[in-house]
Amino acid sequence: MSEWKFNRDAIQAFRFVRCAFDAATGVAQLVYAFDDGPELIETVTVPGAPFQLEGERAVAVEHALRLLHLITGVSYYKAAVPKEIRIDSYTIDADTAALMESVYLNGLGEFAYRNGLNLHGRIRFPHGDANSAEAPALGLREHALVAIGGGKDSLVSIEALRSLGVDQTVTWIGGSQLIRACAERTGLPTLNLGRSLAPQLFDYNREGAWNGHIPVTAINSSIMVLAAVLLGVDQVVFSNERSASYGSLIEGTGEVNHQWSKGWAFESAFGAHVQRTVAADLHYYSLLRPLSELAVARQFAKTDRYDAHFSSCNRNFHILGERPANRWCGVCPKCHFVFLALAPFMPKPRLMGIFGRNLLDDAAQIPGFDALLEFQDHKPFECVGEGRESRAAMAALADRPEWREDTLVERFAHEIRPQLNADELRVEPLLVIDDEHRIPPHLWERLRAQFAA
After folding, report:
1. 0.70 exceeded by the pTM?
2. CA angle at residue 220 from 215 to 81, to 5 degrees?
3. Is the pLDDT of residue 412 over 90?
4. How does pLDDT run across 278-326, given as a tens digit for each residue?
5. Both ends of the chain: CA-CA distance in Å?
6. Beta-ladder partners of 285
7. How far is CA 275 from CA 287, 288, 439, in A?
8. Which residues of 81-100 are buried (b: 16+ CB within 10 A; e: fewer)?
């Protein structure tokens, strides 16, 4: 085995070797391999996990662990995308195999597009003939693990649940100090889950592995489902709005959704699977699914509690480090969109105070905002709203004296708006609350009234 070398094109199979959870340490081991190569061992750590697991709870943990093992494998599978997938230590049913094939195919959509790969018909998970028995209810206590990423969306969910009196723990994965500071700002109990990738993956990347975007939300969702079962709580809450279900329309390719695992197709399939195979009383849902990005921005603007703490800029984590002096790079698609989405709902000085400058009065930003508007370009491969939302927000600013003389707003008014249908530029229709969601019924009616206010 010591002589095995990573060769992307020679690899025949990707193997799910085994998975295990050590109750004494709260550490899950997820083990993978290519062919007969070295074991790739990822670990996930759940602080506060019980020292002993028995009966139905132990079975549920095992099922949640296998689900995590299967989904997290996407990080490693993509390095070589071999034709064969093997599961060495357990058997899955046909429904689970179908879910995994959907997660891998759609979650790797952008990855495949950027690398010129066609994964259709290539991803096949082996499975047994019969479907597994339905999971029982575990008697989980009413409590929500709420995912926080440091941006506006999760903070809207946290405050909404707080107003409804729902007990919650603000939860994140990894070591970001920015997210920690934002979580601590809520004043609520916090939970920091650990995740350590197999170190060989970084070696493989240097040796020519395929690389690119993966469905991170799917991975984080499965980590939090495991944590919820271990901690005995009945809700895993994310903050993905309905706009996440719409991808970028690429000429000659079709729709490619950068944030597929934030969309409704994943949420509905994954949530139903968790209740069928892990625990019937474990509810996985997005609190913001009924809202557009603009509706979320309107909710966020109602409080300034987090103005000096939140950031939706991904470059904080990829380039600037964990605790940069400036939380917004001001040039990436996320900065562009959040600035534009908040602008119709908060005073201009407050918004400029958050970002440190006016992004709409900088001609160098034109290409970035044109992509958001889907004007002579497609929607960016980023977690941003629909083109129609960006166009409506820009149209609203063009009608306001404090904004209409800014460079990009003035350009929109004179060059772009005349080419558009005025009936499609109104903000109000985009604020309508949708009924497609998995929010528990006893919360939804009160939540709907709150979002409509």
Report:
1. yes
2. 35
3. yes
4. 999 999 999 999 999 999 999 999 999 999 899 888 766 543 344 445 6
5. 63
6. 237
7. 18, 20, 14
8. bbeebebeeeebbebbbebb
Residue 446, Ramachandran bin (φ over 0: left; ψ between -120 and 50: alpha; else beta)? alpha
In this structure, how many other beta carbons lie within 10 angstroms of the beta carbon of residue 206? Answer: 8
Q: Are 226 and 28 in contact (CB under 8 A)?
A: yes
Q: Which two tokens stand for residue 190?
A: 């916090």
pLDDT reading at 21 higher than 70: yes
DSSP β-ladder status, 27-34 and 40-45: antiparallel
> Tokens 């499965």 sit at which residue?
222
Question: What is the residue type of 63?
Answer: H
> Which residues fall within 8 angstroms of residue 20, CB to CB, at 6 or more apart?
28, 29, 65
Beta strands in 123-218 (DSSP E): 141-147, 168-173, 190-196
The SS3 of residue 189 is: coil
How does strand 190-196 pair with strand 141-147? unpaired
Q: How far is CA 389 from the centre of its chain?
A: 20
